Amino acid sequence: MNEHPELATALLAVAFSAVVLVTGQLYMEHRTTQEMRVTQQASVKEGVDLRRVSQVSPYMRSER
Q: Is Transmembrane helix there in the keyword field (predicted)?
């Protein structure tokens, strides 16, 4: 049996696995920094905006 094709196939599999792992790591780092940048820039509002709730349109006001 010739061992060179088997060795070449094994090395190709190892190289492909290494490339996939490095690419995945770089992608995850990029996404994390992008999400952190967006979160810091966005003004996150929690809860209900009371100014909108308290402003009643003239149509909804009852005449007393």
A: yes
Distance CA 49, CA 58 (A): 19
- Full-prediction pTM beyond 0.70? no
Distance CA 23, CA 30 (A): 11
pLDDT tens digits, 23-63:
999 999 999 888 877 766 565 556 655 555 455 556 555 55
* Residue 13 vs residues 38, 46, 61: alpha-carbon distances, Å: 37, 49, 73
Question: What are the boundaries of each domain within the chain?
Answer: 4-54
DSSP tag of 42? S
Q: Shortest CA distance to 17 belongs to which of 28, 9, 6?
A: 9
